[in-house]
Queue: 2 jobs
Job 1
Amino acid sequence: MIKKMSNSENEFDIPAKNCHRMVILGSTKVGKTSIISRFLNERVEDQYTPTIEDFHRKLYSIRGDVYQLDILDTSGNHPFPAMRRLSILTGDVFILVFSLDNRESFQEVQRLKRQIYETKSCLRNKTKENVDVPVVICGNKCDRDFYREVQEEEIEQLVGGDEHCAYFEISAKKNTNVDQMFQTLFSIAKLPIEMSPGRHCKVSVQSCEILHRKSLRNKKCKDENAYGIVAPFARRPSVQSDLMYIKEKAIGGSQAKEKGCIIC
Ligand SMILES: Nc1nc2c(ncn2[C@@H]2O[C@H](COP(=O)(O)OP(=O)(O)OP(=O)(O)O)[C@@H](O)[C@H]2O)c(=O)[nH]1
Ligand SMILES: [Mg+2]
């Protein structure tokens, strides 16, 4: 079994099979950070702050099992292609975002989807034909009174026929379709859909000991079977531990090299 790169495993004894990484990619200013902010805090900032790379962690207890979801919010400016490749290699589920009124951002999503498939095909037992990475593509900012620069047929072409890929028109700002999008992503990835923001009870980090309980006895919580905690001060695992993780995921060092799995 592959050992995931998390510190918190020891703290909470989370099995590697329940640890996953969600990576969000897309051009700058399309709304990636806003989507993650919706996911974690159920609100978005109006003010724009460019992201370099942000790492978050959410812990869940769902029907008695504990899960860890690491979230990598990437930069749309991607000044370091090797970092992008690393985030693709370590990601388990992906959100690709474009803005419905920005054609270039859609073309970037087309390139990113291709890059994910090419990059993942160097992992164990994978070829470009059988890569089965869960991907949700988001056309964001649907609240805007916009001139639509991306046509539905083009989106259909990008998404259609791929059972591991889905498309949603969303608004992070107005919270339109965001929960449905996350539910679909988790369902494609065969993860509990209770991980999406509207499907579990949010509890504070002070209550983290409840991760060990089978259910939460809390009057404020309607659903005693699923709750989630945003881990404060989550630290991104080191690049070295990411690389070790990838090395194990790929077929040893030598075969990975043969297949072109190089991180620079
Ligand atoms: N109208 C509208 N504005 C949005 C929406 N989502 C995000 N924005 C705004 O778009 C701007 C960019 O949002 P961010 O979430 O920071 O974009 P980003 O993709 O993370 O950008 P980088 O970090 O530079 O890659 C901000 O001013 C947001 O308030 C949306 O759904 N509708
Ligand atoms: Mg950002």
Job 2
Amino acid sequence: MLKIEYRIQSEIRVALQEILERYMLIGSKLRQEVNGIIEEAKETEFCSCINQYQTLSFAIGCINCLRKRVINLLCHKGLKATLCVSKWKHTKNYPAGSHEYIEVMASTQGRKKQIPLVIELEFRDQFEIAKACDEYMKLVDKLPLCYVGKTEYLNPIVGVMCDAAKRSMEEKKLHMGPWRKRSFMQMKWSSTSERRSLNDEPSRQLLHQSCSKSSKPAAAGIISKRKLDNSC
Ligand SMILES: [Zn+2]
């Protein structure tokens, strides 16, 4: 029994390692640039809202303001960055919820077309579980703190981690909440999730003012699917 257990655990570890290696190979130059910008944003006083004394795992301030500051800096560097909001309704399987992340457009080789990349500032935190088994914790430690890449790699990582979380919960005899399930986690960054343009929000106006270099006309109201016209 123990032998079987070990074999499955090692398979999960190898699967994650393989996905992460492929993730690291693609877009490494842009990832390096984005990570530099994230570090730059953390060093500024990025948060001045009522949550400014909140403690993130890597900075003081709130994640919403940090996300906006990162978008701001990305725009200043000439990159096309957008704040995306995925929202989902309550169903019999899941509680209602929403999630914010950044999307940045990256040029492919030869600059023929642009592809959207997801920037998730709290990627590793998404998988933290309070009473996880050691094996699961080791997997979490392998994850990048921030995810900068295609959804192509994001979804398999989420899949492997959710399988591992399920095993960890079973081992610790804990109930697995629906928000830990793969299909729920993937909704956070899903291209088919309903997305809302934040152009109407006052903070959005400020954001646009600061990256007016390449700003596009603002689209009002709810926009679904990938095409958000609030890129800076
Ligand atoms: Zn704030």
